[in-house]
Amino acid sequence: MRTLRVAGAEFDVRDEGDGEPVLLVAGSGAAGRVWDLHQVPALRAAGFRVLTFDRRPLQETSSPPDPRALAAELSHVLAELGLPGCRAVGASFGGEVVQELMLSRPELVTRAVLMATRGRGDLSGRTMADAERELAAAGVRLPPRYAAWQRAVLNLSPATWRREDELLDWLDLFEAAERAGTAPVPVPAGGEPADRLAALGRVSVPVLVLGFEHDLIVPPWLCREVAGALPRGRYAELAECGHYGYLERPAEVNAALLEFLTTAA
């Protein structure tokens, strides 16, 4: 692991493997290691060099995340690593960051995969952000078992809930993370996300947008809008998975990821 100081932030960067570089950008509040279980091994086995990171201030502050600011910082990280361009993969908030990287520094992204991404705000997202702000202002800490159940409801699909042995593993994992203080902490949005759909018409590289059928946090129709706004966008929807689709259905996600990243432009 290498620590880089750029634009007033510290990035702990894990740089693994050889070959063409792929930058993985996790969602808000999630650590870069979220990719380690499934996506990093698959990409390395396919011959890619894989970059994941943690931005220390983002993990330690309750300030609203800003995808444009993080994209600007990542451009400095890529420069420090001597990378003139790379493939990029982002999930949820990470997908918004990759969008902004393609818009602000188009030469840095040769193709991209955006999972559970949005190009504008919506009522569901506003309501969730308002609720999280109210909860944070009240100083309430949910009991670990309840927090684990809530996280499972929001992020897993009904298909996983029907497989009770598998669901029990998820609930145990979420509860253990809550008790250890390592669970992702939702960071309430600071306001209505900017509508970037028109701006995405400037993106010239191929982009695959993956939606997850039962995603409550970023519903699939918002992902479909992003794909439709991109001149070279392509949309695919994976069945029987929620917002954690890349963890719930890793084989299907990895197959789509690798097929797209290895296809000639």
Automatic annotation (TrEMBL):
Q: Which residues form a coiled coil?
A: none
**What's the protein here called?**
Alpha/beta hydrolase
Q: Which GO terms describe its molecular function?
A: hydrolase activity
Q: Which PANTHER family match?
A: AB HYDROLASE SUPERFAMILY PROTEIN YCLE, MONOACYLGLYCEROL LIPASE
Q: Name the InterPro entries on file.
A: AB_hydrolase_1, AB_hydrolase_fold, AB_hydrolase_sf
Keyword Oxidoreductase recorded: no
Q: Where is the AB hydrolase-1 domain?
A: 22-256
Q: Sorted alphabetically, which Pfam families does this protein's record hold?
A: Abhydrolase_6
Keywords attached to this entry: Hydrolase
Give the transmembrane ranges. Answer: none
